[in-house]
Specification:
The chain is mainly beta. 12% of the residues lie in helices and 38% in strands. Strands 1, 2, 3, 4, 5, 6, 7, 8, 9, 10 and 11 form an 11-stranded antiparallel sheet that branches. A hairpin with a 7-residue loop joins strand 1 (54-65) and strand 2 (73-90).
Length: 214
């Protein structure tokens, strides 16, 4: 369980813009592979099923400060499990639907597991030719986005070079790019009025995430 302390509206607003911008990048890749939002994908061809098809499990880690005097730094995490199914490929990026997810944090409302339809806006875009390296960095638009049934959104930073992928595609994580040191992922509510991931925390840092294929 994570502790709850006092709120940081500026941090929450920053995550709002980050997650919406990331979502636009993800959807752009899906349009390229021929996804129309109706449960199918053109352009898959022989690439599907991909090496990434299957189940991944891992952790998302965050850090924040309390409003105590002096402030205390708190580190928390939650576990995520996702099932991936290949949609298609475009420009070296393989798009996958996230067909189911389990998230241990109650904010996302999916502790017991959730089935996700193609229309849910949940997908994981990954490189056709792993591993990612300094000379073969991840492309813009590669990463994870999940819209949970309770209208919360979880995304990873998806600018070029933000994603690490092992040669066999079994290990996925944020890169060590210093520009995303404290923003490797983000969480947001799409409902109105929105609810914030850590409504009573200050100086929130979205430190890291990693997923490994089962």
């Amino acid at each position: 369980m994570r502790d709850i302390v006092h709120g940081d509206a500026n941090a929450a607003q920053g995550v709002f813009f980050f997650t919406r911008l990331a979502l636009v990048g993800f959807i752009g890749v899906l349009v390229l592979v021929g996804w129309g939002g109706g449960g199918g994908g053109g352009g898959g061809g022989s690439i599907c099923p991909s090496i990434y098809n299957g189940t991944y499990t891992g952790q998302f880690i965050y850090e924040y400060q309390t409003t105590a005097i002096p402030p205390q730094t708190v580190t928390g995490n939650f576990q995520l499990t996702v099932q991936l199914s290949c949609v298609g490929i475009a420009n070296g990026i393989i798009a996958h639907f996230v067909t189911s997810a389990t998230n241990s944090d109650p904010y996302f409302g999916c502790q017991g597991g959730c089935s996700l339809s193609p229309n849910s806006g949940s997908f994981f875009n990954l490189p056709e030719h792993p591993p990612t390296t300094p000379s073969n960095p991840s492309e813009r638009g590669e990463g994870l986005a999940i819209q949970f049934p309770n209208k919360t959104l979880l995304v990873t930073s998806n600018f070029a070079g933000n994603l690490n992928v092992s040669a066999d595609g079994r290990h996925l994580s944020n890169s060590l790019d210093p520009s995303i040191e404290n923003s490797t992922w983000g969480a947001e509510s799409l409902s109105l009025p929105p609810k914030y991931f850590l409504p009573d925390a200050i100086n929130i840092k979205y430190k890291s995430w990693s997923l490994t294929k089962n």
